Amino acid sequence: MASARPIYLDNHATTRVDPRVVDAMLPYLREDYGNAGSRSHVYGKSAADAVSAAREAVAALVGAEPDDVIFTSGATESNNLAIKGICHADVPPAHVVTSCMEHHAVLDVCRDLESHGWSVTYLPARAGGRVSGEDVVSALQPDTRLVTIMWANNETGVINDVPGLAAICRERRIFFHSDGAQVLGRLPVDLSCTGVDLLSVSAHKVYGPKGVGALVLRRSARRALRPLLNGGGQERGLRPGTIPVHQVVGLGEAARLAARDLEENDAARIANLRDQFLAALRTAVPIEINGSMDHRLPGNLNLWFEGCDTEALMMRCREVAFSTGSACTSASLEPSYVISALTGNEQRAAESARFGFGRFTTEDEVVRAAEAVVHNVQELRSLSPRARSERASHSQSAPGCESVAAGTK
Predict the structure, then answer these.
(1) Are 50 and 199 part of one and the same domain?
(2) Which strand (E) or helix (H) includes residue 390?
(3) Can you give the CATH number for the domain in which 326 is found?
(4) What is the C-alpha to C-alpha distance for residues 218 and 192, in angstroms, rounded to an integer?
(5) Averaged pLDDT for residues 273-279
(6) What is the strand order of the sheet 175-179 is part of?
C-alpha cells in the first residue's frame, strides 16, 4: 500500500493545476489541435479564437487591454524580455535600479547587463522587507532607463508599494517593470490605475500549467521593446514561435477562475488558514516571523525556528511539503539570500522556512501540518548541541532532575 502523500504547503513554488483548467485545456490537445497561425481552416481558426479568449481573460484580471498581453513561457522569460528588451543593444549602456531581494530571474539578468557595460543599483533590504520609495528616488540617475521591483517577494510574501514606486518613475519618464508572478490571482491588480509599464506573470503560480506566462506592457513600452528572438512574427513580433494553444488556454482559464476567487474574497479564507497554522505553532514552539505581517500575501508565512536547522527539519518532517526559500535555489546549500539580506543574519536564514497556503489547502491539513511541524521542531531542538548543553547545566545544578531527564524522550 502506498504511503500517504505529504500535506502540500509550498504554493509559492508552484500550485496544483485546477481540474477545471485541465478540462479547458484537453480539447486543444485532442480535437482542436490546430495551429493558431493557420487561420485558413477551421482547426486554425478555433485555436486562434481560443488564444484570443485567453488573452482577454488575462488582460481583464490585471486591468489591461488584450493587445497589451504577450504570451511567453513564464515569468522568467517575461522578466528577460522586459529588462533586456528595454535595455537593448540599440540603447547606449545606461543605468538600472533593482533590489537585492529580487528573484534570480531579475538579479541574474541585471548582472548580465553589467557585463555589457550597464550600471545597476541594488537597493538594500529595509525593516519589514519592503522597498522604500525614498531609496528609489535616491538611486535614480540622469541616465536611469529602468526600475525593476517585484510586486510581492516569493520568499517572505511581503508586498511592495508598486503603484507608489511606479508613480515615482512615471513622473520622471523612466520605465518601471515588476515581477508579478506571486500576486497574480492573490491580490487585485489594475494596471489602468498604476504607472507600471511592464508586468511579468506565470500560470503555474495561479493554478495553471507550467511553461506558460505573459508579459503585460503599455504601448509606450511596447514601442521601446526589442525581441529576444526572431522568426515567425507571432505575438506582434515580440515573442516569435508557435503558440502553445493548450497552455495558453490553461492560463486563460486560470485567470478567469482567479478573477472569481478575488470577487468571492477567497484570500480571506486562505489568510485565516495561515493564521490558524501560525497560532498553533506559537502555542508550542518559539518562532519569529520574517518580514512584515501588515504587508504580506494572504497565504504566506516565513518563519524563524531559532536553533533548528530547516534543511534538517525538511528531511525529518516528511508529513509536510514546504521549503526554505525560492524553488530555483533549492539545490543550493547556501542559506536564503533574501532572509540574509532582510535580517543581516545568515544563521537565521539557515533556520527559516517558507509555508504557502492555497486554494486547495483544507483546515484539517492545517491542523495536521502544525502538529507535525511542532513535533519535529521540538525533536530537533532537543538534539541540538545548545539543548544538550542546557540540559547538562540544569542537571548539574539540580541533581534531582537527572533521572527524569534520562527517562524522557
Answers:
(1) yes
(2) helix 385-397
(3) 3.90.1150.10
(4) 10
(5) 98
(6) 69-72, 213-217, 198-202, 175-179, 144-148, 95-99, 119-123
| DSSP structure string for 259-281 | HHHHHTTHHHHHHHHHHHHHHHH
- Tell me, what's the pLDDT at 270? 98
Q: What is the separation, in whole angstroms, between the first and last Cα of the chain?
A: 30
Q: What is the pLDDT of residue 373?
A: 98
Q: Note down the domain range covering 209.
A: 19-262
116: cell is 555589457
pLDDT band at 307 (very low <50, low <70, confident <90, very high): very high
Q: Are residues 300 and 201 located together in one domain of the fold? A: no
Task: Please identify which of the residues 87, 169, 308, 328 carries the catalytic annotation.
Answer: 328
Assess contact for 268 and 298: CB atoms under 8 A.
yes
Inter-CA distances, 241 with 83, 211, 260, 343, Å: 20, 14, 31, 43
Residue 2 within any structural domain of the chain? no
* 71 CA to centre of own chain: 18
Q: Which of 106, 278, 93, 95 is nearest to 179 (CA)?
A: 106
**HSE of 169, CA atoms in CB hemisphere, 13 A:** 29
- For the stretch 218-228, pLDDT in tens is 998 999 999 99
Residues 134-140 have a mean pLDDT of 98
Distance separating alpha carbons of residues 393 and 399, to the nearest angstrom: 10
Q: How confident is the model at residue 409 (pLDDT cuts 50, 70, 90)?
A: very low
As a whole-number percent, the residues of the chain with pLDDT over 90 amount to: 86
Burial of 185 per CB tally in 10 Å (0-12, 13-18, 19+): buried
3-class state of residue 346 by DSSP: helix
Q: What is the pTM of this model?
A: 0.91
Per the annotation, the verdict on 308 as an active-site residue is no
pLDDT at 401 over 90: no
SS3 355: strand
Least confident of 36-45, 312-321, 327-336: 327-336
Q: Are residues 292 and 220 in the same domain?
A: no
Tell whether 62 and 180 lie within a shared domain.
yes
Q: Average pLDDT of 38-55?
A: 96
Q: Can you tell me the distance from the alpha carbon of 140 to that of 178, in angstroms, rounded to the nearest whole number?
A: 17
Higher pLDDT, 206 or 395: 206
The neighbouring-strand residues paired with 69 are 216
